Amino acid sequence: GQNIDQPTEMTATEGAIVQINCTYQTSGFNGLFWYQQHAGEAPTFLSYNVLDGLEEKGRFSSFLSRSKGYSYLLLKELQMKDSASYLCAVRDVATNAGKSTFGDGTTLTVKP
Amino acid sequence: DVKVTQSSRYLVKRTGEKVFLECVQDMDHENMFWYRQDPGLGLRLIYFSYDVKMKEKGDIPEGYSVSREKKERFSLILESASTNQTSMYLCASSLFRDRGRAYGYTFGSGTRLTVV
Question: Which H or E run includes B48?
Fold first, then answer.
C-alpha cells in the first residue's frame, strides 16, 4: 500500500516563494505527480517526477528524492490565483493502468 | 475544449435508489478511474479500468460497481445508494503508458452527489 503525508494548510504572501513538502512510504513507485485543485473544481496536472532531481516548469518546480521518499513543490513569485489545494500523488508500479494514490492535499492561501 | 465529461454536476438521490454516474473522454485514453473526494480523506480510488470490459477494484469498491462497454465511456453504479455515499465523485483518464513523457490524469469536473 501507499502512505502519503503533506501539510494540511500553508499561508504565504503574494510575490513570495513557498515550498510544499510531501513524504511517502510505498510498496511500489513509478513516479510522483503534483496536481492543483481550485475550490469547487477538478484537479489539474502540474508536474511529474520519476528520477531524482528538480523539474522546472515556469514558476513551478518539483523535486524528488526516491531514497528519502520525499518530494516538494516550489512555487515562486506567488500570485493570488495560486490559492488552491495542492495534491501529491504516487503512481503504483504494480499495474499497467498506472493508478495513483493521493495525499490529502495542502491548502495554500496567498495573502496580499 | 472539454476532454473528460461527467454527465451531472449536481445530483440528489434517495436512499436505496440505484444511481448511475457517467463519464466520457474524447482523448482515446486506455485507462479510466473513479475516485471520490471527501474533506479530510482526500481522493480515494473506487474502481479503475485499463481496457474495454476490464475493471479492477480500487481501495473502496464496496457498494459500487462499474461498466466499461466502450473505450470512451466508464460508468459508476451505486447499487443501493446510502447516505455515506454522499460525496464528490471524480472521473479521470490517462494514457496506457508514458510513451516517452508523463501525462498524469485528466479529470472531469466532478459530480457532487447527495443521498438523502
Answer: strand B42-49
DSSP collapsed to 3 states, A19-82: EEEEEEEECCCCCEEEEEECCCCCCEEEEEECCCEEEEECCEEEEEECCCCEEEEEECCCCHHH
Establish if B52 touches chain A: CB-CB under 8 angstroms: no
- Among B2, B9, B43, most A C-beta atoms within 10 A, so best to mutate, is B43
For the stretch A93-112, pLDDT in tens is: 756 567 889 999 999 999 99
| Residue B83 reports pLDDT greater than 90 | yes
Residue identified by cell 490524469 is B105
How many Å apart are CA B116 and CA B114, to the nearest integer?
6
- List, in order, residues 6 or more apart from A71 with CB less than 8 Å away: A21, A22, A23, A24, A32, A34, A49, A62, A63, A64, A65, A88
CA B45 to chain centre: 9
**How is residue B4 written as a grid cell?**
473528460
- Cross-chain CB nearest to B48 (options A44, A48, A99): A99
Is residue A3 a contact partner of residue B68, using CB atoms and an 8 Å limit? no
* 8 Å CB contact between A43 and A87: yes
| Residues of B whose CB is below 8 A from A107 | none
